[in-house]
Amino acid sequence: MMSKLIRMVGGVMLGLSSVAANAAYQLNLQTPNSTIATQIYNLHMLILWVCVVIFVVVFSALFYSLLKHRKSVGHKAAHFHESTTVEIAWTVIPFIILIVMAFPATKTMIQMRDTPNPDMTVKVTAYQWKWEYDYQKDGVKYMSVLSTPQDQIDNKAPKDEHYLLEVDNPLVVPVGKKVRLLLQANDVIHSWSMPAFGVKQDAIPGFIKDTWFRADRTGTYRGQCSELCGKGHGFMPIVVEVKDQADYDKWFEEQKTKVASAAADAGKEYTADELKAKGEAVFTANCAACHQANGKGIPGTIPALDGSKIATGPKDAHINRVMNGKPGTAMAAFAAQLSDLEIASVITYERNSWGNHDGDFVAPSEIKALRK
Questions:
Q1: Are residues 202 and 229 in the same domain?
Q2: Backbone angles phi and psi of 296, in degrees to 5
Q3: What is the pTM of this model?
Q4: Total domain count for the chain?
Q5: Quick one: which of 227, 248, 262, 309 has the fewest CB in 10 Å?
Q6: CA 196, CA 239: separation in Å to the nearest integer?
Q7: Would you say 187 and 332 are in contact if contact means Cβ atoms under 8 Å apart?
Q8: Regarding predicted confidence, which is higher, 166 or 258?
Q9: CA 120 from centre of chain
């Protein structure tokens, strides 16, 4: 008896601790940071309270009838078959309620499609499992990839506040500017979702879809791909940094400097050691999630690179696999995702790491020649 009581108390304490641990979890929508998001939030609350009122009215009438009109208190059931008044009421009242809800919903939906005349346009291309942001007419383009440390994913290190919601290169926009997004996908259907801006738009292969937002306040905002896009779906976050105009202009100039520097670097001649060092960073960001940091892959699912026929065989076949992928598998084509230097360096790294020691390397000029 005592042991049962102890187990019961322990269960109650565990339940209370779980409640305390989850007390900070947000139950409602994210705090809106755009006009559209505010309208969506207000519409959500309007419909919620309409449902609450309907719930209270219907169940109050139900429980009143059960308590006051039951047989045990001597009440006799009335016999009637139809009532024109009741039928009109239960048709007209729901119709009016639907109209009240539909008017603001339609207004918001129309405004969500108001994409013309933006202050800036960014083309967003979705890949498994990363985003590419291309600032149209400005020459700035980069990939945005999950940056949560692998040790946290493998439960070897404590998870931080933004676990699986961190990226190396967020989308950066100025506050108060209308930003139009042109969305497309390179492989499967993805969805660019940012609740704080009231944006959720699918990116579909072969189509270009568009949406827009205008951030009201500076800060960092987080979302995720909200379309089931494969085994790495949970590792495809979206981060947007909203800066004031002066900070945005400074950031943009830095990006243009990086683009110019990368273009200059692509024309340089590199040693095998330099390419291998650069390739390790590229491998960690793009390949390690599947092939593992030790090159062993995932037995039965992802092939190993350590000792593989691709990484130790003819160089041309290795280049073709990295650039064009392997249809029907999780191996994506990286020709559109990585630069000439990145492709050359990651191949060099794979051919000269772990147990692979061929000693050969791939120059960026070789990759550039293959693109023509």
A1: yes
A2: -85, -10
A3: 0.77
A4: 3
A5: 309
A6: 11
A7: yes
A8: 166
A9: 22
Distance CA 312, CA 357 (A): 8
Q: In the chain, at which residue ranges do the beta strands (DSSP E only) sit?
A: 120-127, 130-135, 140-144, 171-174, 179-185, 190-194, 199-203, 209-213, 219-224, 237-243
Per-residue pLDDT tens over the stretch 71-119: 888 888 777 778 888 889 989 999 998 998 899 999 999 999 999 999 9
Note whether 128 and 254 are same-domain residues: yes
Which token pair is 176? Answer: 């108060």
CA pair distance 75, 97, nearest whole angstrom: 34
Contact criterion met (CB below 8 Å) for 334 and 347? no
**Which tokens sit at 33?**
């940071």
Say whether both 142 and 188 belong to one domain: yes
Q: At what angle do helices 340-351 and 364-371 cross, to 10 degrees?
A: 120
- Domain for residue 7, yes or no? no
Considering only CA atoms, which of 285, 266, 282, 265 is closest in space to residue 368? 266
The model's confidence at residue 6, banded by pLDDT at 50, 70 and 90, is very low
| Residue 310 tokens, joined | 């691709």
Q: What is the pLDDT of residue 7?
A: 46
Find the domain containing 244 and state its range: 120-263
Q: How far apart are CA 236 and CA 128, in angstroms?
A: 8
Cα three-residue angle 17-18-19, rounded to 5 degrees: 90
Q: Which two tokens stand for residue 34?
A: 């755009």
Phi/psi of residue 133, nearest 5 degrees: -110, 125
Last-in-domain residue among 211, 235, 263: 263
Higher pLDDT, 130 or 83: 130
Note whether 118 and 135 are within 8 A (CB): no
Domain boundary among 205, 229, 263: 263
